[in-house]
Automatic annotation (TrEMBL):
This is Alpha/beta hydrolase fold-3 domain-containing protein. InterPro entries: AB_hydrolase_3, AB_hydrolase_fold, Carboxylest/Gibb_receptor, Lipase_GDXG_put_SER_AS. The active site is at residue 178. It comes from Castanea mollissima. Residues 91-320 form the Alpha/beta hydrolase fold-3 domain. GO terms for molecular function: hydrolase activity. PANTHER family: ARYLACETAMIDE DEACETYLASE, CARBOXYLESTERASE 6-RELATED.
């Protein structure tokens, strides 16, 4: 395992061609976030700064980047508390961004995960996966599985890497927010498929739970919150943006009732028949995804699965990484406390 120093934006943003003489046709766009051209080029404005793994000493956390797969440029950023008493749970975390934007090196994720690691007393492996539309689904799920296989290899090596000495590989949690929560869920369902054979293949890793923060699900039939939630100009997720993300991320010809988008659709496997981890689902009251998240939790409960959810009042989608209001900061501390309780059982 090699430590790396890189420009994370290189794998996330195509270098645009000279448009001054011959403007190109745009076929899809979310203003300020992503623009897709007919010729296949993709531009992602740097709306959020990319930062290195460096952290303030006062946080009490060490962070470093490591390569997972040099051929696909998949890497991860680790967060490890400086003071540990025994081995700690490990969260494998996937960032949000509609599968199309975002990075483990975005400053907002770097700050949030460093604080989560310190306050929840856990290690975090933040995975930088391939993005759509260049790499449509299931690429992100495959990268999540690849990250787990890599983690298994590190656990088997037992050579005392700087972070592995403190990892309790028998307490692994899959976590993420928005599209990252979707990835965590779909990776977990794959690991639990085929009568648990895949889970056995990951030994000595033992997955203990799923932490889904504002999970990015969709469907052809709109929910009440999707139709009527008042959208702020600064909203982290609008219905139009949600539809565009799904258009860019799903395989050609698929609609929003594809099982990867809508886990409750007719073409999805029945929850009753699936081997699923215990869930903690974090829902935002002012999020257009609120009702869809609640429906998911209700369906899990009816299927006899272990699920608990928390509703965060007065805040919207991705508040924990994109909002700096006092209310958002308070709700983020509440979220961290709920995650800590969930992984400490």
């Amino acid at each position: 395992m090699a430590a790396i120093s890189l420009d994370p934006s290189l794998s996330l943003k195509h270098v645009g061609k000279d448009d001054t003489q011959h403007p190109r046709a745009v076929i899809d766009e979310i203003e300020g976030l992503i623009r897709v051209y007919k010729d296949g080029d993709v531009e992602r404005p740097q709306i959020v700064p990319f930062v290195t793994s460096a952290l303030s000493l006062e946080l009490g956390v060490t962070s470093k980047d490591v390569v997972i797969d040099k051929f696909t440029n998949i890497w991860a950023r680790f967060y490890v508390p400086n003071v540990c008493h025994g081995k700690l749970p490990l969260l494998v975390y996937f960032h949000g961004g509609g599968f199309c934007v975002g990075s483990a090196a975005w400053s907002c994720y770097h700050e949030f995960l460093a604080r989560l690691s310190a306050k929840a007393n856990c290690l975090i492996m933040s995975v930088n996966y391939r993005l759509a539309p260049e790499n449509p689904l299931p690429a992100a799920y495959e990268d999540g599985l690849r990250a787990l296989v890599w983690l298994k290899q590190q656990a088997l090596r037992g050579d005392g890497e700087w972070w592995s000495r403190l990892s309790d590989f028998s307490k692994i949690f899959l976590a993420g927010d928005s599209a990252g929560a979707n990835i965590a869920h779909n990776v977990a369902t794959r690991v639990g498929s085929n009568h648990g054979i895949e889970a056995m293949a990951l030994k000595p890793l033992s997955l203990k739970g799923n932490i889904l923060i504002q999970p990015f699900f969709g469907g052809e039939v709109r929910t009440h919150s999707e139709n009527y939630m008042v959208q702020s100009p600064r909203s982290a997720l609008s219905l139009a943006a949600s539809d565009t993300y799904w258009r860019l991320a799903l395989p050609a010809g698929a609609n929003r009732d594809h099982s990867w988008c809508n886990p409750l659709s007719k073409e999805s496997s029945k929850l009753e028949d699936m081997r699923l981890l215990p869930f903690l689902v974090c829902i935002s009251e002012m999020d257009i995804l609120k009702d869809r998240n609640l429906e998911f939790c209700t369906a899990l409960n009816r299927a006899g699965k272990r699920v608990e959810y928390v509703m965060y009042k007065g805040v919207g989608h991705s508040f924990q990484v994109l909002s700096t209001t006092q209310l958002s900061q308070t709700r983020t501390l509440e979220m961290v406390a709920h995650i800590k309780a969930f992984i400490s059982r």
